[in-house]
Amino acid sequence: MNTKKMVLTTVIVLGLGGCTTQNTAPIPMYSSTQAHILFSAKTDNLNDTQEKQFWKLARAAAKRATKGDGNEDNWRYLKDDTLYVAKTKRQHQYEIAYQVKATKPLPVKVNYDMLIKFTKNSLEKPRYKVQKLDVNLGE
Predict the structure, then answer these.
(1) Spatial distance between the Cα atoms of 12 and 5, rounded to a whole number of angstroms
(2) Domain-embedded: residue 125
(3) Rg for the chain, CA atoms, rounded
(4) Which of 23, 53, 129, 137 is 20 to 30 A from 59 via CA?
(5) Cβ contacts of 110 within 8 Å, gap of 6 or more
(6) Could you give the count of Cα atoms lying within 13 Å of 23 in the half-sphere of its Cβ?
(7) How far apart are CA 110 and CA 100, in angstroms?
(8) Lateral strand order in the sheet of 36-39
(9) Element (H or E) spanning 95, and its range?
(10) What percent of the chain has a predicted confidence (pLDDT) above 70?
(11) Which of 10-19, 53-62, 67-76 bottoms out in mean pLDDT, i.e. has the lowest?
(12) What's 107's domain CATH number?
């Protein structure tokens, strides 16, 4: 009888341990106070999941920060072009330079330079504030 209780307790504990959600895309250097380039044309210190999530986040942050500056449908003509991600000296703060290019109605590149402060250490379901945004048109 004692053995059955022990086995049942072990199964319950192991089962509950498997139910916890695991952060599969933590933000690199989240609590660090050292500046560091994480991703650029010459540097890649991100795993594939982190890189994919930063691309997704950069686009979403740029769209959210410029909401009301034009027609939402215009974003379908903008394609991802380049991405730069760096950790700043402040905890939870990152510099992101995101560039998109358009072919319609005119060929143009748009650069979004952002300072983003995360409030949660997850790229899967990120929570953040855009602290600074500069938008520039290029060729």
Answers:
(1) 10
(2) yes
(3) 21
(4) 23
(5) 78, 99, 100, 101, 102, 135, 136, 137, 138
(6) 11
(7) 5
(8) 36-39, 78-87, 93-102, 108-118, 128-138
(9) strand 93-102
(10) 78
(11) 10-19
(12) 3.10.450
